[in-house]
């Protein structure tokens, strides 16, 4: 999966209304839609799409969408 597609699916997973404003360098913790529920949604998304188990701590330590992408594609 390319980063562009990942961004689109990330936006869908946490219900970002304007995904076109997101880039790989977006600090996702600063998004209006970001909440504690978003962490759980991402864990489920990563498991379903990539069959990767990502810990809550790893998501909280990530800063950008690129960091999240790197977690699941490494």
What are the salient characteristics of this protein?
single chain; globular; 4 helices; 74 residues; mainly alpha; 0% strand; Non-ribosomal Peptide Synthetase Peptidyl Carrier Protein, Chain A
Description:
This protein has one domain: ACP-like (Non-ribosomal Peptide Synthetase Peptidyl Carrier Protein, Chain A, Orthogonal Bundle), CATH 1.10.1200. It has helices at 3-13, 36-50, 56-61, 65-73. The protein is built from four helices and no strands. With 74 residues, it is mainly α. The protein is globular and about 25 Å long. Helices cover 55% and strands 0% of the residues. The termini are close together.
Question: How would you summarize the topology of this molecule?
Answer:
Blueprint: H1 3-13, H2 36-50, H3 56-61, H4 65-73
């Amino acid at each position: 999966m390319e980063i562009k597609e990942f961004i689109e699916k990330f936006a869908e997973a946490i219900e970002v209304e304007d995904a076109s404003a997101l880039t790989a360098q977006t600090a996702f913790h600063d998004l209006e839609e970001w909440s504690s529920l978003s962490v759980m949604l991402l864990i489920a998304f990563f498991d379903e799409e990539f069959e990767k188990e990502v810990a809550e701590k790893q998501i909280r330590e990530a800063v950008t969408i690129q960091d999240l992408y790197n977690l699941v594609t490494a």
